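Tokens in:
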């Protein structure tokens, strides 16, 4: 039997005239949220995991094409060992508990990042989710774990060099399309909307190539409090943005 109610109606979603194809979220503020309540940091991470589930479902309900969640950066390995271990256990729990619903909701799951640094328990759960959901055609859910934007770019360069060395890629100039095809998000649209919670004004080595023309939305709300309504507010803000991609609006220039 499924662990969730398949008969329950989906929450009503507002109408939007324009939605981003790819939303990326820096899920920040779990520790501070917990500290404000006199709780240990892991309490905030647990609540943040629940929030990730809800926002994923919301993006699926809105028919957004791709969602990338920044769960654990390469720099996060510097945190205390006890916290890292607890985060890895939470990650395994998330991956195991959400697989059935990802299948029901037609979500395709991918983990992006430096996998060689992940414990085997996480890798096993990642492989199961990726293989099981590989043929799904709905929302692309990218979970950035052990991830760094600079490392992703260097990895893409090294893949291109290796392909040239092996003769599978002709030597010569590399263009942007060829480069993008070697990134973790190959085949997906570039990020249209980057959301950062907790009010910090930095991108923290997140998807440095893919966010080149992203609209950036910063909120002071900590991630555990980032509800569907907060997401709708970010999407409404995006809807009102004028996206020129380096050009000008001829009508406004008159």
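Residues out:
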């Amino acid at each position: 039997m499924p662990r969730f109610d398949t008969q329950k109606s989906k929450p009503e979603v507002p109408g939007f005239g324009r939605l981003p194809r790819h939303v990326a979220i820096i899920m920040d503020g779990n520790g501070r949220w917990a500290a404000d309540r006199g709780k240990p940091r892991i309490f905030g991470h647990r609540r943040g995991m629940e929030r990730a589930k809800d926002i994923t479902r919301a993006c699926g309900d809105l028919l957004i094409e791709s969602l990338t969640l920044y769960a654990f950066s390469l720099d996060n390995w510097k945190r205390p060992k006890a916290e890292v271990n607890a985060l890895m256990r939470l990650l395994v729990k998330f991956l195991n508990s959400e697989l059935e619903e990802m299948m029901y909701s037609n979500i395709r799951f991918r983990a992006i990042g430096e996998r060689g640094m992940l414990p085997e328990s996480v890798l096993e759960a990642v492989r199961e989710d990726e293989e099981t959901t590989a043929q799904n055609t709905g929302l692309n859910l990218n979970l950035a774990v052990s991830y760094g934007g600079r490392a992703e770019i260097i990895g893409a360069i090294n893949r291109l060099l290796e392909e040239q060395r092996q003769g599978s890629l002709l030597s010569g100039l590399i263009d942007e399309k060829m480069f993008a095809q070697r990134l973790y998000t190959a085949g997906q649209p570039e990020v249209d909307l980057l959301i950062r919670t907790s009010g910090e004004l930095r991108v923290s080595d997140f998807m440095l190539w893919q966010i080149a023309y992203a609209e950036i939305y910063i909120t002071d709300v900590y991630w555990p409090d980032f509800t569907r309504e907060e997401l709708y507010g970010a999407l409404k803000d995006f809807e009102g943005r004028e996206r020129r991609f380096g050009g000008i609006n001829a009508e406004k220039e008159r």
